[in-house]
Amino acid sequence: MTNANRIQSIFDSDIAQTLTRLEALLDSPATPEFATALKTQVAALLSWGEVLEVEALVSLAQTTVLLMRAAPNNHPMIAQLALEGFRAIYQLELLQAQQQAAPRPVATTLQPPTNLSPPGAPEVNSELLLEQRLPTANLFLWEMDGIIFVLPSPQVVEILISKPEQLVQTGLGKGLHWRDQTLPLYQLLQTPSQQPFPDIGLSSAPGLTLRSGTILVIQQGAHRLALDIDIKLLVTESQLTIIPYASRLRAPSYCHGYTVRSDDRATPVVNIAQLLDQTLRLPSALPRKGEVPVTNPSADIDPVVLVVDDSQTLRHILSMTLEEAGYRVLQAQHGSEALEQLQNHQDVELVICDVEMPQMNGFDFLSHCRRDPKMTDLPVVMLSTHSGEEHRQLSSTLGANAYFSKPYDQSQFLDTLHTLITKS
Question: Which of 131, 196, 215, 236 could form a disulfide with 59, with the two C-beta atoms 3.0–4.6 Å apart?
Answer without folding.
Answer: 236
